[in-house]
Design goal:
By secondary structure, the chain is an alpha+beta fold. The protein has helices spanning 11-21, 27-36, 41-60, 63-112, 158-165, 208-215, 229-239, and strands spanning 2-8, 114-121, 127-131, 134-140, 146-152, 170-178, 184-193, 224-225. The chain contains seven helices and eight strands, in the order βααααββββαββαβα. The longest helix is centred in the middle third of the chain and has 50 residues, at 63-112.
Length: 240
């Protein structure tokens, strides 16, 4: 049984959205903070060790030796930071893109001001198709339609952790569908466990998850597909 009700955004969601909408760093500033700010362990270590080291050298020696040590320490720190940038340059860029996208979507959600509170009580066990990027979750809504979730294991999605510990396999799902971005928020699972942990098939073929999405009409995360679960299963079975 599926029920959907439009409600005002809860305060907890509004607070999170405001924080995401407030992101305003340029890429240069974001990169600098990740390399030389408190987000970079090497920079933090240098900020702590540097003054102590230079004070000790000055106390036990003289200004010339302190300047020499400061120069060596500065060059070494710069090399560490350069190495950190080279190793993490793609991760930093991807993180900036994610936060920029989150800012844009948060503004749209705040402007909408409402969301859909969705409740699903299942009589048939949900289906999961795990792949290299996460897991596709499908569940019968009881009206010849199927809800589709595309859970990314790399995005700190709470549903991924629910899936890993087996709570995603329970028969009652609740979530909020944000009206501006269409994103899924505040997902929770409770009730009786309907599928065993470890029964999920792993889709090994590269990009098979994209093929599944295309075969189902390219739904977005949280969409309700106008297909009965049996037809969805048959469609996916032909692909795998």
């Amino acid at each position: 049984m599926l029920t959907i009700a439009e409600i005002d955004l809860p305060q907890s969601i509004q607070k999170r959205l405001r924080e995401e909408a407030a992101f305003s760093e340029s890429f240069v500033a974001f990169t600098r903070e990740n390399l030389m700010g408190f987000r970079q362990p090497a920079a933090v270590a240098a900020a702590i060790i540097g003054p102590i080291l230079l004070s000790f050298v000055y106390y036990t020696s003289d200004f010339v030796n302190m300047a020499s040590v400061a120069g060596t320490f500065g060059v070494t720190t710069a090399l560490f930071l350069l190495g950190a940038w080279y190793v993490n340059r793609r991760a930093i860029r991807d993180a900036y893109v994610r936060q920029t996208r989150a800012r844009r979507e948060a503004k749209a959600d705040l402007q909408a001001g409402v969301g859909e509170a969705v409740y699903l009580k299942m009589t048939h066990q949900p289906l999961f198709y795990e792949h290299e990027h996460g897991v596709i979750c499908l569940a019968d809504t009881g009206d010849n339609r199927t809800v589709y979730f595309d859970v990314d294991s790399f995005e700190n999605d709470s549903r991924w952790f629910l899936y890993i510990n087996g709570d995603m396999h329970r028969d009652t799902w609740r979530w909020m569908r944000l009206m501006g971005s269409g994103a899924v928020a505040e997902f929770s699972a409770s009730g009786q466990r309907m599928a065993k942990i470890g029964d999920t098939p792993y889709v090994e073929a590269p990009d098979a998850w994209e093929a599944i999405s295309v075969a189902l009409g390219e739904p977005q995360d949280g969409d309700i597909i106008d297909l009965p679960i049996e037809k969805v299963i048959n469609t996916i079975s032909r692909l795998l």
